[in-house]
Amino acid sequence: MPSITPGPIPLVAREEITAETAQVLPSGSSAVVYCEGQFGEQDGKTANGLVRHSEKYEILSVIDSTRAGADAGELLDGRRNGIPVLHDLAAAIEQAGRTPDYLICGVAPADGLLSPAQRIVLLDGISRGMHIINGLHEFLGDDLEFAAASLLAGVTITDIRRPRPTKDLHLFSGRIVDVTCPRITVLGTDGAIGKRTTATLLVQALNSRGIKAVMVGTGQTTIIQGGKYGVALDALVPQFCSGEVEDQVVAAFEGEHPDVIVVEGQGALSHPAYITSAHILRGSRPAGVIVQHAPKRKVLGDFPMVAMPTVASEIAMIESFIDTRVIGVTINHEEMTDDEIGSTIVDYEAELGIPVTDALARPADRLVEMVLAAMPELAPAGYPGGAG
N or C end: fewer C-beta atoms under 10 angstroms in the chain? Predict the structure, then answer.
């Protein structure tokens, strides 16, 4: 039997995916998110993000047999959103009444690899005619089994983290100085702590108050969600990381002419395993930083041998690393009651002397107030404290 090579794989399966190229995909937008055993957990952050916000895909359901029967929104945030959590792919197709267009891999383990059981589910989706969206470090378009299956089924495999050829990557150029609007970077004290969610909610809140904001993503989930600007930073050779961040910030500035650009953070500046925060800070050169912190988290999510930093120590490190200032703190309320959220906000504001809020559990106005307290020039006419 002749060998099968990945050469003829459909182009979209083999090219690097940025926020721009991710727009060029097969027609249709209905999707099922596969997140077995991890939905609502740290390693389910891609699925969690898509359930909360998706501009590109119509999320029909989430697959996680350990939480089957739940409403995805209620499980995550205590608010029903009509997206069911189902037992398996067969149940998802039955619930949809048709075969959805896409099967999105919603797990995001630290090693970025699929388990044998996960491979079976994604291959099953291909055999049923579903296109695959893969955000892992493991490129399924290069896997002979997946390549053959996709060719036979006539579907595509989109590897979100596949980098562009080196000749097309950007070194830091200094063009960031031409970006005249302020940048706000949302960093954190750990990975999978809510930076992307807070950045997304901040952009939505600012725009709803008449302050034109645009987001630059730096991870695979933001690109899958349909973000217009961004790059999967942890898939790149480090030499190009700050330049790619700079390039996307410049593109957002020139393409949208915003009042402010919000840049999604990755990992933590203090994190022993992830270095992308340093590149994000260097490439975006933010006027302000918001730090996301989980007060009840005692050790790093995927590295339980390492204690969590304090929010105060993370702020000190950020402000000593680059010429910027931390303008506020946002709380990840995992394992916290509402009373504990309230008391923690009060305690942190007293200790740190900056605004503190919870982007999910407190009104969005508090995020806007946090920004305007540091950057009053952004206040639109008619806004309290604004011009006019």
Answer: N
CB 122 within 8 A of CB 63: no
Q: State the pairing for strand pair 157-159/299-300.
A: unpaired
Q: Please, are residues 161 and 230 in contact by the beta-carbon 8 Å criterion?
A: no
Pick the CATH number of 171-378 from 3.40.50.300, 3.40.50.1000, 3.30.70.260, 3.40.50.720: 3.40.50.300
**Which pTM value belongs to this model?**
0.91
Class of domain 11-159: alpha beta
Tokens of 339: 């009373």
Q: What are phi and psi of 334, to 5 degrees?
A: -55, 130
Contact 77, 360 (CB under 8 A): yes
Determine how many CB atoms are found less than 10 A away from the CB of residue 6: 18
pLDDT along the chain (388 residues), means of 10: 38 47 67 98 96 96 98 96 98 98 94 93 98 96 97 97 95 98 98 97 98 98 96 96 98 98 98 97 98 98 96 98 98 97 98 98 98 97 67
Q: How far apart are CA 303 and CA 311, in angstroms?
A: 18
